[in-house]
Amino acid sequence: MPQTAVPFMQIRGGSSKGVYLLRSDLPREPAQRHDVLKWIMGAHGDPRQIDGLGGANPLTSKIAIVSRSERDDCDVDFQFVQALVGEDELDDSPNCGNLLAGVGAFALESGLIERDGPRAEVRVFMTNSGKRCDLVFATEGGRPVYEGDAAIDGVRGTAAPIICRYHDLAGALCGALLPTGNARDEFDGVAVTCVDNGMPVVCLRAEDFGLTGRETPSALNADDELKRRLESIRLQAGAAMGLGDVADKAVPKMCLVSPAENGGHLNTRTFIPKVCHQAIGVLGAVSAATATLFEGSAVGDLARPVHGEVKQMKIEHPSGHFDVQLEMDPDGEAAAVKRAGLLRTARLISRGDVYVPASVWDGDNHD
Ligand code: NQM
């Protein structure tokens, strides 16, 4: 039996890379779709993902599923799926602000939507979080412009800017900005602040683990005792955040915080959740910044204070810094962020067909 061809694009979205698919090109039935996605990525537990398109790292083992939105206030729906490296599992609970950056380009390139003029605004409904983000970027002849002068950490050179305007991030996955109900909790005797401002993140003090917070990701990845302690706290914090048993989930992320040293507001080393990020995730950065703003936060005193209703915060990470603009809600709970503005770039890398065995899917039963 011949294999089944599934059209795909591979796009660098922000500082991640993913396989972008139209929902209508995938099986309608969820269990079969799940199977097909695993085959597309080669995500059957092999950490090298040798039999698929996955890149053998959490940042390159990502999937975006896009469809036309039925909502009046959005143009397209975006579902993010993380193929867990080395595990025979997919996790569609978290969102990804990096892959999101490529969704507008994919929607135009695939003909899902059309835009005229020099600038497109694409309103994206993020199905993982039930929240909206508007992407604004340059276009020419109805296609995205990729070249430009915007630089983001974790990506060489420059590219055309994509402005990402997030709406209502608070409690995106856990239902509350402070999912445990507290600005500070303690697990295994370590003080933490658990926040969900677009991404569930547990913030800890690097010094509580005998670290400066400036260690390289490879040094931290080689520290088995640190990883064991973080995972023990993560399992307890995840349950306390209402996420249930998180052993096989990509959230919550674990963020070690220390004082900034390069003019920023705070310095971070983030585990996503078992491997240290070379930079920091987009929504992870928004949540980590927010964690420092609460009265009584476990990491508040490590951050340089910022004042005003619109807070520009510079989050340092292993390969540079990430600028977050937080527009605070003056009527909301302390540290409620009304809108977050972020700069990303994206680039179409390849497009074509990816093949799955016909015994897994014969190509029928799609929308
Ligand atoms: O936090 C890494 C990334 C991410 C996710 C991760 C992301 C986000 O760098 O919004 O972008 O936390 O797994 O792509």
Task: Summarize the entry for a quick read.
Helix content is 15%, strand content 34%. It is built from 6 helices and 18 strands.
Keywords:
Diaminopimelate Epimerase, Chain A, domain 1; globular; binds (1E)-4-oxobut-1-ene-1,2,4-tricarboxylic acid; 367 residues; 18-stranded mixed β-sheet; alpha+beta
Write a structural description.
The protein is α+β, with helices and mostly antiparallel strands and 367 residues long. The chain folds into two domains: 4-161 and 346-356, Diaminopimelate Epimerase, Chain A, domain 1 (Roll); 185-324, Diaminopimelate Epimerase, Chain A, domain 1 (Roll). The protein has helices spanning 30-41, 97-101, 103-109, 217-221, 224-240, 282-291, and strands at 4-13, 16-22, 62-68, 76-83, 90-91, 119-126, 131-140, 143-144, 162-167, 185-187, 190-196, 200-205, 253-258, 266-271, 310-317, 320-328, 337-344, 346-356. The protein has an 18-stranded mixed sheet that branches. The longest helix is centred in the middle third of the chain and has 17 residues, at 224-240. It is globular, with a radius of gyration of 20 Å. The two termini are 23 Å apart. The model has no long low-confidence stretch (mean pLDDT 95). It binds (1E)-4-oxobut-1-ene-1,2,4-tricarboxylic acid. (1E)-4-oxobut-1-ene-1,2,4-tricarboxylic acid is lined by residues 15-16, 58-59, 96-98, 199, 253, 272, 277, 281-284.
Low-confidence stretches: none
Estimated radius of gyration: 20 Å
Top CATH class of the largest domain: Alpha Beta
In DSSP terms (H or I, runs of 4 or more residues), the helix count works out at: 6
Beta-strand share of residues: 25-35%
The coarse silhouette is: globular
**What is the level-2 CATH architecture name of the largest domain?**
Roll
Classify the fold: give the CATH topology of the largest domain: Diaminopimelate Epimerase, Chain A, domain 1
